[in-house]
Hints:
Elements: H1 7-10, H2 16-39, H3 46-53, H4 57-64, H5 69-72, H6 77-87, H7 93-123, H8 127-152, H9 159-181, H10 188-200
Amino acid sequence: xxxxxxxxxxxxxxxxxxxxxxxxxxxxxxxxxxxxxxxxxxxxxxxxxxxxxxxxxxxxxxxxxxxxxxxxxxxxxxxxxxxxxxxxxxxxxxxxxxxxxxxxxxxxxxxxxxxxxxxxxxxxxxxxxxxxxxxxxxxxxxxxxxxxxxxxxxxxxxxxxxxxxxxxxxxxxxxxxxxxxxxxxxxxxxxxxxxxxxxxxxxxxx
Length: 206
C-alpha cells in the first residue's frame, strides 16, 4: 500500500523518535504561526518562539533551519517523495505524480485546510518568506527529478526529466498562489486538479 498523510504519525516505517520530532515541530510551528499573525513576521524573534514553545532556539534552527521555514515547513513532504518513488514502479511519471498529489495534498487539505491557509497568508505577504518558499519549491523539484531519473534509469540531468519535475512543482505553486489571491474561494478540488489537467494537456491553454 502507498503511504498516506497519516503515516507520519502512525506508520511503522517511521521510528518513534522521528514521530516525536515531527510532533514537536508541528507544535513549534503552531506557536510561530500564532505569533506571526498577531505581531507580524518581522517583529517576532526565534528566541521568543522558543520561549513560548518551551524549546531552545538551537533546537528550532536544527529542526527548521531558518525562521522562514517555520512557515513553509510541511510535514507531508517526506511522505510525498516516498510515495512518488513507490508509484513510479507501476505508473508513468505524470500519472504517479498526479496520484501522489491527490493523496497527500487531498489528505492535507481535508485534515489541515485552515493551517495551510494561515501559512499561505503569511508566506505571500512577506517577501522573505515567499522567496524561501520559492527556493523550497525548487529543491523539491530537484528531489522529484532525482526520483524520476532513478526510476527510469535516466541521467538526473536529463533535460526532459528536469523540465517535467520543475513544471509539475511550478504548476502546483502557481495554483496555491491563485488560491491565496482569490481569497481561497476556488474549490480545493480545483486547486489540486487544475494544474495537473493543464500539464496533461501539454500545458496548452484552452
